[in-house]
Design brief:
Helix content is 39%, strand content 15%. The protein is of the alpha+beta class and 630 residues long. The strands form four sheets. An eight-stranded mixed β-sheet has the order 1-4-5-6-7-8-9-10, covered by helices on one side. A six-stranded mixed β-sheet has the order 11-12-13-14-15-16.
Length: 630
């Protein structure tokens, strides 16, 4: 069996990178340390049940010299991201960094403190706020701002404020228009599949250390506590909109379609500080995340960064974001924004230039090179996104999955294709013999591809799975990109130990509870087992006593159609009176409807068993589906 711990190919690659990259440039380390107030000690956050949801101490090994099992550039980035504690950004602005994937920023107002992006989990957000208060006083939270609709920027909100304070107007919550719609849709519609793949992307289940998880490039990893959500009370809907919260004025820039479908930057004129949300961080970001998402638009992303430069840069002394460390000085932050702008614009334009010459996404990804001015600065490197998968995403955005070659139009499924490949290549033994030779030669990409055929043709072949695990491990050790490393190492881990499932939960009760009535039925429709429901015919009117709405759903031809109903429609098969939370509990939460019917929370009329009939056609998603095996 090949040795997977010290392959000379990976060592040589790391050594070459260590010599070619500007490791003598330590400005990022100075910036990441600037304004340090105090660390969280001990740096372990637990849930109310005593479970560890965050452990900064597990990254202490990053203070050692870079080992051969980690790309030296990624080691550098991971060390920077793991620095945890409370930091002063500028007068009245503080950040808690290194206590989750994202940062939590705190802005001191006239009477309290405004919290920007309260992390993923209630527990980590509460720990961050406690750390701030220990050094800046027990200030009340007088406002919350969500920069955008990803869970690492709102999930910990109940760790910093309460629904009662928000409802009473003591703590307004500001967010870009469309925030709730996109936040809940992403975590519910395709949430099961995204969460399963996120287990690979963030490596939360990987052992931490030089041969395991070292970080995700954007931050260390995701916390595993309780995600929460309180809906915004103030929508930001246009660029130039200004709001004053606790005496602090904010000037907003809308940036939909960049890093998130609902996102915004904002400027503090009193403090000459600029928050760039997640639109300009110290990495090339994702245009399509490896966990799955809608493809983002690098063209509009680049344009919004130009607008940020023109609107805010000359008036700013410091730039901070929802990840990583700030950039100080007007000239430096202007250049930082300009390089970030050029990065996304260049990838977009050059991909389009190549595809209009007939190149496919994978061909463009292999051929494209960044200009020296972009390649030679640290914050353009692909620690989270990568040039390779971003270029493929741009191709997908414009051209779709099909590359135009009719040979690729109707290929066999992975298992059937694998069986045929194995037969054509001379059988399993012959493939393994050649794969071991290619492994020794360092052609790990090819070994991974051919062994995948063997495993999908015969997942019981232990020799193939063992060699594939070694191969994926080598690919992970050589990756500069944190999420690529995690994907490769998680693949190796599951081949050796079995599936870990989904370590983190994003479709938490608060998030599901924020679904609108139409979104609830959208989510239910996605679970209808179409073939089993082909011959079903069922119409139900749902009368929501808490929202004074009648919503009709019709199951026909395997499709659940739904819409607001009025008195002009034909009579339904059944009418069910209930509240929106009751519908969520039963249809999305799996609660037993019988007690709710017995106590009058749910009142069915008409066709007996209509509710149960609908439920009988619903399928359950699988949070543990296989990835590296069929």
């Amino acid at each position: 069996m090949p040795d997977s711990s010290d392959d000379t190919t990976v060592i040589a690659s790391g050594s070459q990178q260590a010599q070619s990259l500007p490791f003598s440039d330590v400005q990022d380390f100075a910036d990441a340390e600037r304004g340090f107030v105090a660390a969280l000690e001990p740096a372990v956050v637990k849930s109310a049940a005593g479970d560890i949801v965050w452990d900064s101490e597990s990254y202490a090994f990053l203070e050692e010299d870079c080992p051969p099992t980690v790309n030296p550039s990624l080691w550098r980035q991971s060390r920077l991201c793991a620095r945890q504690g409370l930091f002063e950004v500028t007068d009245r602005i503080y950040q808690v960094r290194g206590l989750d994937l994202s940062n939590m920023t705190l802005v001191e107002g006239d009477t309290g403190v405004i919290v920007i992006d309260p992390l993923i989990s209630e527990e980590t957000a509460a720990a961050g706020l406690a750390l701030y208060r220990a050094h800046r006083g027990d200030r009340p939270v007088t406002g919350v701002i969500y920069t955008h609709c990803h869970i690492d920027h709102f999930g910990g909100v109940k760790g910093v404020t309460t629904t009662e304070d928000v409802a009473a107007g003591r703590c307004p919550i500001l967010a870009p228009t469309g925030f709730v719609e996109h936040a809940v849709a992403e975590n519910v519609y395709a949430g099961t599949a995204m969460a399963r793949r996120a287990a690979y992307m963030y490596g939360a289940a990987l052992p931490r250390g030089p041969q395991g998880a070292v970080g995700a490039g954007l931050g260390p990893t995701t916390s595993t506590g309780t995600p929460t959500l309180i809906s915004p009370t103030i929508d930001i809907d246009h660029t130039g909109q200004t709001e004053t919260v606790d005496g602090i004025t904010l000037e907003f820039q809308m940036t939909p379609g960049t890093e998130a479908p609902a996102e915004m930057n904002f400027y503090f004129p009193q403090l000459r500080a600029l928050c760039m949300a997640e639109n300009a961080t110290h990495t090339l970001h994702n245009l399509l995340t490896l966990r799955g998402a809608l493809v983002r638009d690098p063209h509009v992303w680049s344009q919004y960064l130009t607008e940020s430069i023109n609107r805010f840069a000359s008036r700013s002394d410091v730039l901070f974001a929802s990840h990583h460390w700030p950039t100080w000085d007007t000239e430096r932050l202007t250049e930082f924004l300009s390089i970030q702008r050029d990065l996304y614009g260049y990838l977009h334009d050059q991909t389009l230039r190549a595809l209009n010459k007939g190149a496919t996404g994978i061909e463009i990804a292999e051929a494209i090179e960044l200009p020296p001015a972009l390649e030679n600065v640290w914050h353009t490197h692909g620690y989270y996104g990568s040039v390779s998968h971003n270029v493929k995403a741009i191709y997908q955005r414009y051209m779709g999955w099909f590359d135009g070659n009719p040979a690729h139009l109707w290929e066999h499924t992975p298992v059937e294709s694998a069986k045929r490949h194995v037969e054509f290549m001379g059988g399993t033994d012959r493939i393994l013999e050649k794969a071991r030779r290619s492994f020794t030669e360092g052609d790990f990409r090819w070994v991974a591809q051919v062994l995948n055929y063997v495993i999908f043709a015969d997942p019981t072949n232990t020799e193939a799975t063992a060699l594939q695990a070694d191969t994926l491990e080598q690919l992970g050790y050589g990756s500069e990109n944190g999420t690529w490393r995690n994907f490769f190492l998680m693949g190796a881990y599951e081949l050796r130990h079995g599936a870990v499932g989904t370590p983190t939960v994003t479709a938490a009760p608060d998030i599901v509870g924020a679904l609108t009535i139409k979104q609830i039925f959208d989510a239910i429709a996605l679970r209808v087992d179409g073939p089993r429901a082909w011959s079903a015919s069922l119409t139900i009117d749902w009368r929501f006593t808490d929202e004074n709405v009648v919503h009709r759903c019709q199951l026909r031809n395997g499709l659940l159609v739904h819409f607001d109903a009025d008195g002009s429609l034909p009579a339904p098969d059944a009418t069910i009176m209930l509240t929106r939370p009751a519908l969520i509990a039963v249809l999305l939460g799996g609660a037993d409807p019988a007690p709710l019917v017995a106590d009058g929370t749910i009142v069915p009329e008409g066709m007996e068993g209509a509710f149960a009939t609908l439920v009988s056609y619903l399928d359950d998603p699988d949070p543990d589906f296989a990835i590296v095996t069929p």
